[in-house]
Q: What sequence folds into this?
């Protein structure tokens, strides 16, 4: 019988859990429809499940009827979005992950102190767009180590910040190259890459050298899920694949394999992992060993706007 090494931690992080529960509670409290700007988290199954309960996902606020309830996604929004919500008389619930908010606050502070901010992240990613909106005149985006040579600096002092869901190793490489070019580059007061992203990458690093195949459960637009595939390959896995759901698995991937690693991105509910394990069991990989590399106990409270209304309704 083939073996499965099940990485732990995996799946939902505290920020994702908070954002999804915020939409669920808003639907319970205010009734459908509740509008959500962008995908609340980058997972197809989660979005479809919430749509089934009455959530309506939109790209921009002009799609939301005036006076409606709208939830901002875990990835954060630019200040201009908050202003637009006020102008359209929308009841806004901000489900931005507190760790993303921390980066926003750092960007505002360093910009006010006159720094040129080098933001390491993927251009166009919702989190980067939101952070950029805090201080567009101060921020230059660095999309990985290969873009360090393109940086044009001015007379302002330099500091780097980063998107929270990047590969830890690639970010460190980018920082290293930036420091070679700019020896006076300042670092943020604390690491921007979130604890959950780091823990999931460390868990994959632990199992990958023992695996013929590593399966990452997660959506293609989930930055941290895509990074897990890369980390698995860099850490010694023979092959690695990303799937949204078990039906996307291909039996041919496991021909000749004896050990399969399984993990999931930070926006993936455990039910999707259970589906993958059930399919692998059918194909002869029924011996599951959970490999625990860290314990996570962090919980974030719900957005204050929602807490206040839940309390007023006697449902807190």
A:
């Amino acid at each position: 019988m083939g073996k499965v090494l099940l990485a732990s931690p995996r799946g939902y992080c505290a920020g994702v859990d908070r954002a999804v529960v915020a939409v669920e509670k808003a639907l319970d409290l205010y009734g459908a429809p509740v509008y959500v700007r962008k995908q609340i988290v980058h997972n197809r199954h989660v979005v479809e499940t919430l749509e089934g309960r009455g959530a309506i996902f939109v790209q921009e606020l002009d799609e939301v009827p005036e006076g409606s309830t709208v939830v901002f996604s875990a990835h954060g929004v630019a200040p201009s979005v908050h202003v637009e919500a006020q102008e359209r008389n929308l009841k806004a619930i901000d489900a931005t992950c507190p760790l993303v908010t921390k980066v926003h606050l750092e960007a505002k502070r360093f910009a006010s102190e006159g720094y040129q901010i080098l933001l390491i992240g993927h251009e166009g990613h919702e989190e980067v767009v939101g952070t950029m909106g805090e201080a567009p005149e101060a921020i230059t985006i660095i999309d990985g180590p290969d873009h360090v040579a393109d940086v044009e600096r001015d007379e302002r002092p330099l500091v780097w910040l980063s998107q929270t869901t990047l590969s830890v190793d690639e970010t460190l490489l980018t920082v290293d190259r930036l420091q070679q070019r700019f020896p006076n580059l300042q670092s943020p007061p604390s690491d921007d890459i979130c604890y959950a992203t780091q823990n999931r990458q460390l868990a994959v690093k632990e199992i990958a050298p023992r695996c013929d195949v590593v399966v990452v459960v997660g959506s293609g637009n989930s930055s941290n899920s895509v990074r897990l595939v890369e980390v698995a390959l860099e850490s010694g896995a023979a092959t690695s694949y990303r799937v949204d759901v078990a039906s996307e698995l291909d039996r041919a991937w496991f021909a000749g394999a004896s050990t399969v690693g399984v993990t999931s991105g930070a926006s993936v509910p455990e039910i999707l992992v259970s589906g993958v394990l059930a399919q692998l069991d059918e194909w002869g990989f029924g011996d599951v060993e959970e490999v625990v590399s860290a314990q996570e106990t962090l919980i974030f409270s719900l957005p204050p706007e929602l807490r206040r209304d839940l309390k007023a309704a006697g449902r807190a």
Notes: The longest helix spans residues 14-30. The CA atoms of residues 77 and 304 lie 17 Å apart. The two ends are 49 Å apart (CA to CA).
